Amino acid sequence: MAFPLSSAIISYKHSLNVSITPSFPKPSFLPTQFVFCSNQMPTKDPARPARPRIHCLSKKTLSEELADRHDFPTNFYLSICRHGIKKLESLIAVILLSIQISSPLPLVGWDSLFISPATAVLYSPDTKVPRTGELALRKAIPANTSMKTIQESLEDISYLLRIPQRKPFGTMEGNVKKALKIAVDEKDSILASLPTNLKEKGSTLYASLIDGKGGLQALLESIKDKDPDKVSVGLASSLDTVAEIELLQAPGLSFLLPKQYLNYPRLTGRGIVEFTIEKGDGSTFSPEAGGELRKTATIQVVVDGYSAPLTAGNFVKLVIDGAYDGAKLNCTDQAVLSDSGLDKNGYNVPLEIMPSGQFEPLYRTTLNVQDGELPVLPLSVYGAVAMAHSEVSEEYSSPYQFFFYLYDKRNAGLGGLSFDEGQFSVFGYTIVGKDILPQIKTGDVIRSAKLVEGQDRLILPNES
């Protein structure tokens, strides 16, 4: 089960028909209550059922809502009747199943009579979707084709290392040799793709990739020693070097933005935003290893303009303008949201999602994950950062409200993807402070948000 998020409404999806009894926290603790309601949210896709909604109600609205429900006998009796019918259907289903097992004859027509249609489809897409922010960000860098081939060959080793018991070291060795051959044979073309002012730095990194302490030659030796831990460390080092070279190869966007979107701020590369979080009730965050209790905690987010230039650009401008300083946070089981910021001056950016395998983002449209469409920046990663939906239309992102996604595979489909995958503009990942996210509670505050890297990559409309 998952919470699709929007600026004012958080919709609750479920894969089974279940009755949910509201459990309201005492209104004296929080100024806002999240309440399960039974009204349905319409969907554009007839194959997808309408979903119950969760409204964010004030104390006053909540009291009125509860007062309206005092006269409940009719609904109560109807609920009992429905419950009895469900029990009867379950009993009949058990009897039919017993008959079918003992005498396997076709029961034509009975299935449609007693079995309710599924309200959600479980799917099993490509299991190689990035599972960490670091991996997703590395895959999102637009770089030289040869470098991408080296990267993919090395990343395959990450999956091979997950195989329990006996590791396929022979296959790993073949992958590294393939990457090493490309690195040697294509060295000139790879270095030629670097900007002139970055060639010296690129050449140093490239030499390190081949023969350095954490390079491909050293990785081969670790594989020959058949030491999984050493292989894992060496692989991480080689992939970090690959990513550094690729970032040098990608000084700007690899595509042209549509003309109608040139009046938005845009980020033409990567940026790093640092949040300082403070407890709203005066309590403390858990200490770091061997440290003391902390009154504040730091979270760093890498913002990716390569895949979401408009969304990242709007967010970075808000950070620079100080729009998030003092913002309060709200928590659900699967997200930490900033407040709605109705008095903030952000841009109404269209929903922006870069599909995997494509060269430019799609605008104002979601992805159909069940048909195999996957985003370059997946939501199904713990600490993913995305914009909530606009209150007016789900074709646009909120001009201000963002959220940290607390991915949990227990609330995902068979392929391990969130049921909200492909529905939001993801623009970055939490790289530092992921352990802080589960400690955040409703009422905690962003003391400050600042851009520590990437301001030179922000282009404002009047600079176009």
TrEMBL record:
What are the UniProt keywords, alphabetically? Answer: Thylakoid
Reply yes or no: does the keyword Transmembrane helix apply: no
Q: Which residues form the PPIase cyclophilin-type domain?
A: 284-441
Source taxon at top rank = Eukaryota
Under the heading SUPFAM superfamilies, the entry gives:
Cyclophilin-like
Keyword Thylakoid among record annotations: yes
Q: Name one GO molecular function term.
A: peptidyl-prolyl cis-trans isomerase activity
List the PANTHER family. PEPTIDYL-PROLYL CIS-TRANS ISOMERASE CYP37, CHLOROPLASTIC (PTHR47318:SF1)
Task: Tell me what this protein is called.
Answer: PPIase cyclophilin-type domain-containing protein
Q: To which species is this protein native?
A: Quercus rubra (Northern red oak)
Upper lineage = Eukaryota, Viridiplantae, Streptophyta, Embryophyta, Tracheophyta
